[in-house]
Amino acid sequence: MPVRVIVGCQWGDEGKGKVVDYFSEDADVVVRFQGGANAGHTVITESGDFVLHLLPSGILRAEKKCVIADGIVIDPEQLIKEIIFLRDMGVSVKGRLFISGKAHLVFPYHKYYDKYLEKLRKGKAIGTTGRGIGPAYTDRVARCGIRAYDLFDEELLKAKLDDNLKLKRSLSPDLNQVEEFGLKYNFDWINRFKEGMMDFIKDTSKILQNALVSGDSVLFEGAQGMMLDVDYGTYPYTTSSNTVSGGIPVNCGLAPFIPDETIGIVKAYTTRVGEGPFPTELNDEMGDILRKRGREFGATTGRPRRCGWLDFVALKYALKINGVNSIAMTKIDVLDGIERILICDGYRYKGKLIREFPNNINIIEECKPHYIEVSGWESETSSLLEFEDLPQNAKEYIDIIENTLEVPVSHISTGPFRHQMIKKCK
Ligand code: IMP
Q1: Is 41 tagged catalytic?
Q2: Which of 36, 114, 268, 317 is buried deepest, with most CB atoms within 10 A?
Q3: Homologous superfamily assigned to 104-197
Q4: Cα separation values, 111 from 118, 128, 135, 196, Å
Q5: 131 lines ligand 1 (CB under 6 A)
């Protein structure tokens, strides 16, 4: 399978780490193309549990090449932390990690400003991860950002930092006394991490172009989820990058291409962290059950995730925009033992039933879910390895998903471990 794309189809936390790890077994190159250390991809291997924020999940397989592409915003401190953590766990990244020189860097002032803006938003906070993502992408489009290539020229780096910080302090005078907005603080900080990064900085666009030309198997690993896309998600309650598959060429320096397979990861129910509309959210005991059984606490911030039923309206929209041609369903085991399972097949809005995901956030905020009810299953699914062995009602749940979404479910994950994956024939 030369080119495969894996994207989350909900509001993130669909279980991308595990699924990417599974598919990276037959990839030569694994690529992160957007986002930054706001992601938290959990992978459990025989050697231990790993939560990766920046490095592609393929890094855990020794022979794979991994690329942090142009579209990423890199927190150097987090990057070095991950490289050291992996080294201590016996995983070397030398010679197989490639970081784009065009990728932008996240500095302490970005992280400070992220939290500062959230406070100013008062009742309208986005609920960001506080990892400086929005401010770093803002600098990118404002053309004052600092890129990985800038690390190679110390004087230029210092001058760019100085200009940038002066501009920011003049726009917000109350930041004048904040140490994270001082030149020395940021310059000393980057000097602590830059040596550890520089060997990895390359022209990743060329590396990926060559990989595609030579027929290497390349896997593009999405972060966050489709509904957090800055343009197509529930804006402004989104992240600041394009999480959709269409963002891959531009964020990797590649000509547009049609992947051989686009896998959409769909959790068997829905979760969301941070603020913003979530039509199927459960603010009741069932929400608590899903949170507890699914261990739904953020891998990056530890925040409890909001939980709710599956939402076909949002999913249909997500699958279309991403061109998904097969679904990997995760966490079906979390639904074991739940007597009645609801699935949202439409929204009620001002007395009307709508089946298309609204473009306007004001409408989404007022939508109430319309549910169909299906019977749950008693027995545990976590030890099952064959689709045929799943309880009848679990098979029916998957049938309904395939028939309604008109996309086959090709894989079903029944737990966090590598072997807990059912491959379903298409
Ligand atoms: P930011 O990306 O930190 O700016 O956060 C913007 C929104 O995206 C917030 O609601 C976050 O909770 C959410 N978000 C960012 N990264 C992730 C992720 O990896 N999983 C789930 N939600 C995320």
Answers
A1: yes
A2: 36
A3: Adenylosuccinate Synthetase, subunit A, domain 2 (1.10.300.10)
A4: 11, 11, 8, 21
A5: yes
- Using the mean position of ligand 1's atoms as its centre, give its distance from the Cα of residue 274 in Å: 7
- 178-219 confidence digits (pLDDT tens): 999 999 999 999 999 999 999 999 999 999 999 999 999 999
Select from 18, 87, 97, 31 the least CA-distant residue to 63. Answer: 97
In tens, the pLDDT along 45-92 reads 888 888 899 999 999 998 899 999 999 999 999 999 999 999 999 999
Q: Among 224, 227, 231, 301, name the best residue to mutate to test ligand 1's pocket (greatest count of ligand atoms within 8 A of Cβ).
A: 224
| 110 given a catalytic annotation | no
The active-site residue, picked from 21, 28, 41, 70, is: 41
Backbone angles phi, psi at 95, to 5 degrees: 80, 0
Q: Would you say the C-alpha torsion 79, 80, 85, 91 has a positive or negative sign?
A: positive
Ligand 1 centroid – CA 268 distance (Å): 20
**What's this model's pTM, rounded to 2 decimal places?**
0.96
Q: What are the Cα distances from residue 233, in Å, to 25, 273, 297, 322? A: 30, 14, 22, 12
Distance 160 CA to ligand 1 centre (A): 28
- What is the topology classification, in CATH, of domain 265-423? Adenylosuccinate Synthetase; Chain A, domain 3 (3.90.170)
For ligand 1, atom 15, name the residue with the nearest CA.
38
